[in-house]
């Protein structure tokens, strides 16, 4: 876990980029927010890998449910940093990369299906897209 002293020093380091001297309260808070974002972006990829990171980030993890459009597109939340898991109707959705879409759609074994409850998701155009396209409300 990151100590308060390290966070303070990191905030000061961010603050020193391009400025010197006195900082107003809004400037200090902006630098603190930027530091928090940098720490979150650094730690988020290790969320599922390291238990200490999972414990440290636990207060910041949000579970939520949002609706998709008819094409199965889920808009990323404004405060999105990292997706831990995704489920549709209680069934897991498996992450794939964009270059796997054609292979998955043509696979006789792993083809996305609502009847078999086999779902996949990928990131494209600043959104999360779900296969097969399902509308969630």
Please tag this protein with its features.
137 residues; alpha+beta; 4 helices; 5 strands; 32% helix
Structure summarized in a few sentences:
The protein has 137 residues and is α+β, with helices and mostly antiparallel strands.
Summarize the structure in words.
The mean pLDDT is 81. The longest helix has 19 residues, at 25-43. A five-stranded mixed beta sheet has the order 1-5-4-3-2, with no helix packed on it. The protein is elongated, with a radius of gyration of 20 Å. It is built from four helices and five strands, in the order H-H-H-E-E-E-H-E-E. Helix 1 crosses helix 2 (25-43). It is α+β, with helices and mostly antiparallel strands and 137 residues long.
**Count of individual helical segments:** 4
Name the average pLDDT.
81
**Oligomer description:** single chain
Strand content: 15-25%
The biggest beta sheet, please?
5 strands, mixed
Fraction of residues in H or I helices: 25-40%
Give the class from helix and strand content and strand pairing: alpha+beta
- Uncertain segments are none
Q: What is the first-to-last residue Cα distance?
A: 38 Å
Q: How do the strands of the widest beta sheet line up side by side?
A: 1-5-4-3-2
Order of helices and strands: HHHEEEHEE
Indicate the topology:
Blueprint: H1 4-15, H2 25-43, H3 51-57, E1 73-75, E2 87-88, E3 91-95, H4 101-106, E4 119-124, E5 127-131
Parallel strand pairs: 3-4
Antiparallel strand pairs: 1-5, 2-3, 4-5
